[in-house]
Amino acid sequence: MRYIYIYILTFFGIFSVANAQTIDSIQLPEFTLIENRLTDDNIGSKVQSFNNIKVSNFSSDNIADFLQTYSNFYIKQYGALATPTFRGTSSSHTLILWEGFPINSLTTGVYDLNLLTPSSFDNFSVIKGGSSALFGSGSIGGSIYLHDKINFIHKKNFIYSSNFNTSGLNANNIYLVFSNKKFFSSVYLNRIINKNNFEFSNTSRPNNPFQINSHAQVYSNEIKSNVAYKINSNNFLKYSFWISKNDREIPGNMTVPSSIAKQFDDSYRFLLNYSNNSKLGTLNFNNSYLIEDFIYTDKDIFSTYNTTSYFSKANFIKTFHKSKIEFEQTFNNNNVSSSSLYQKIISEINLFTLLKYNYKLNNLNFISSIRHENRNIKSQDQFKNIPILPLFSTDLRINNIKLTYLINRNFRVPTFNDKYWISSGSIGNINLLAEDSWNNEISFSFANNNLNFDFTVFSLIVDNWITWLPQDNGVWTPLNLKKVKSNGIEINSILQLNKFKTILNYSYTKTTNQIALSANDNSLDKQLRYVPKNKFNISFKYSLKNIDLLYNILYNDIVYTVSDQSNFLDDYLLNNLFLNYKNSNTRFEYAFKCKNIFNISYQSYENYPNPGREFVFNIKYKLINK
What we know:
Layout (H helix, E strand, L loop, with lengths): L1 H15 L13 E6 L10 E6 L11 H8 L3 E5 L2 E5 L8 E5 L2 E2 L20 E6 L3 H4 L6 E6 L7 E11 L3 E11 L3 E12 L4 E3 L8 E3 L5 E15 L2 E15 L12 E17 L2 E18 L2 E19 L3 E16 L6 E17 L2 E11 L14 E10 L2 E12 L3 H5 L14 E13 L3 E20 L5 E22 L2 E14 L20 E10 L3 E10 L2 E2 L7 E2 L2 E11 L5 E8 L18 E12 L1
Parallel strand pairs: 5-8
Antiparallel strand pairs: 1-2, 2-7, 3-4, 5-6, 7-8, 9-10, 9-34, 10-11, 11-14, 12-13, 14-15, 15-16, 16-17, 17-18, 18-19, 19-20, 20-21, 21-22, 22-23, 23-24, 24-25, 25-26, 26-27, 27-28, 28-29, 29-32, 30-31, 32-33, 33-34
C-alpha cells in the first residue's frame, strides 16, 4: 500500500510546480456509432463506443447500469450479481475483453458487471454479435471491449471525484496522468462503499409491505495504471496493471427472511506490450497474466477457487496498396484450483491461430478471416469438436450510405464448472461438446454532420446449447440439448442539432428453443426466459455554457421466468435526470442525478428488488496542465 502513497505523492509534486489550468470537456459520456475503429481485430462487426468515460461524472456507476441505460443490452440484477443478455443469448455468451484479452470467469464463463466501473477506462465498446473468429470462445451474443488511450503529448492531470447517494453510497476516486513526447504514465484509484439500503415493496408477501434492503453492503478498492515508453518512432513499449478487491454481502431474495452470505472477489491483471513498425510491416507482442481469487461463505458453505491465465500473443500486419493481411498466434495456459470441482487442480494448454485478409476496391470493402483453436492439447480430455471459425464481411459505401453484410461462426467451450463440478445434488459432465453458432446480419447506415443512423437485421442459431437438467436419480448435470434460434432488429441513432442531442437505442429480439428437451417440454418455439422482445432507451441532452442537462427514458418489455411462459415479470418504464454544472473560473464541477424519477417498483430477475427513486451527488476537482 505504501507504494501507492509514494505514487500519489510523486504526482502531487509534479502538480505543485505546474502552472495548471482548467479545461472544458464533455462531462456526460460521449457516444459514437462506429464500425471498424475499435482495433483492427473487430473489422466486420458493428461497434457502439462510449468515449471520454474517465472525465465523466458519477464514477460510482457500474457498467451494468451504464449498459442498461445506454445500449441494447438487457441486464439481469439479482442480489449482488449483474449479468448481460444480448441478442437473446445467455450471460456466458457475452465476452468481456481487457485490451483484447478475455477476463470472464474460467469456472462459470460469466463476468459480474457490478465489478466494473466505466470511469476506470478511457472508453469501452460494445461489439454487436458474435466475434469468436477474432476473439475466441464465449463471443456468441456480443463482446465488451475495455480500453485505455496512450497519448505521447505534454500533459499533467489531477482529477479527484467524490460521489454519495441516498442509499448509503460513498465513492471516491483519483485519476493522475503525466506524459510527454516519449513517456506516458497514468494511475487510477477508486474506492466505493455502498450500503445499498434502499426501500422496496416486497411483492412476494401479502399486501406488498415496504422493507429496507439489508445485508447488501459493498466494499470495493481498485487501482489501475498504464506506463508507456516510445523508444523511437518505430518502437513502442507499454506495461499495464489492474488490481481490484471486492468484499460483498449477498442479500437474499424477497422470499428469504435474512441472509448471512458473503462473497470476496480479488483480481490481479498484468499486461506487457511491445510494438514495432518497419517496412516489412507491424509486429506486436502481447503478454498478459490474469489472476482471480474467489471466496463464497454462507451457513454450512465455504467455497473457494483460484484461477490463473497466461496469454502470449504474436501479431503481424502487412499493409499493401489496396489490401492488408494479418497473422496471429496465441499461446494460452489456464489453471484452476477449486474446492467445488472433483479435480481440485486442473490445467490446460491452448494454441490459437488467426489469419485475416482485407481488400478494398473503390467503394467496396471485403474482410475475411479464419481462426483455429487447439484446446487442452496435452490432455486426454482434449476437445474434439472445436469448429474452424470463418468470418466474411463486405460493405458498400455510396455517399453517406453504407450497406454491410456479415456472416461468421462462433462457439463457446464448456466451462470448468460445466465439466468438473461436484456437490451433493449436481455433477459436471466431462463429455460436453462446445456450443456452436452461426451469425448472419445485414445493416444499413447513414451518417452526415448531424445524424448517425444504423439499422441492423440479424439471425443467430446456437447448436449444442448447454442446459443443466435433473436426471432420473435426482442429480442435476449439464447436457448439450438445446438448439436456439434468435432473430431481431437493432436501431441506433444519434441526432445533433446545435446544443441539442438525441441518442436512441432500440432492439426487437425473438429467441426460441427449437428442440423439445422431453416429451413434457412446453418450451418449444416459445420465447426464452429473461429475454425481452422489446427494449429501448432514449436520451435527450441539452448543453449550455456551464450546464449539461440529460433526460433518459428506459423501457424493458415483459420477460418470462419459466420456460413454459406460465409466469412473467411486468414490463417497466424508467425515467432518469442528469445535471452537470461547471464554472470556467473555478476548478470545481458539480453534478446531480435522479434515478427512477417516478419511483417505479420493478424487477429484472424474479424476487430480487431494485432501488426506487435515488438521488446521487458528485463533486469533482480538476487540475490540468498541457
